Amino acid sequence: MGALIDTLGDAILPFWVAVIFAGVGVFSWWSDKRVKRLCTSVAGGVVEDEGYTVVKHKREQPKEGYRPTFSYLVEGVKYTNQPKTMYETRKFSMGQKVTVFYDPFKPSRSYALEAQTPRLVIWMPAIFGGFVLLIGIIIYLVS
Fold it and tell me: Nearest 10 degrees: CA dihedral of 31, 37, 39, 43?
């Protein structure tokens, strides 16, 4: 019984790391899917701000990227939105036309069709969590 507990102890850290990352990945997927399900109305929008930013990391070189601001009108009221993620290479021009999907019951909830987060970015934490879980299972079986 003691050997089993020691073996489980070696595999418990990868298990919890896997659960956390998989949870973040699934939550990101669910959140993205929910917004797309709720945003059923369409409006023409424009890029108001290119959103040029520089992100500094402690040990890495600063990275340049873009997080544009989109604006759109719903029943004469102007709304703005920014994507959740920063694009390192994709640049939007000021005044560029975009297609905005918004929630008819809460028009401030929206997303621009041209600035959707790539699916790989959404699933990356879950994929990493699955990989760590696999490592934990291998550690458990080898021990």
Answer: 120
The count of other CB atoms within 10 Å of the CB of residue 30 is: 11
For the chain, first and last CA: distance in Å? 14
CA 25 to chain centre: 8
* Angle (deg, nearest 10), helices 119-142 and 2-38: 170
Tell me which residue of 1, 35, 16 sits closest to 106, measured CA to CA: 35
Say if CB 41 and CB 103 are below 8 A apart. yes
Write out the chain's pLDDT in tens, 143 residues: 445 445 556 667 777 777 787 788 788 788 888 888 999 999 999 988 777 666 666 677 777 777 788 899 999 999 988 877 666 556 778 888 989 999 999 999 998 887 766 666 667 777 777 777 777 777 777 76
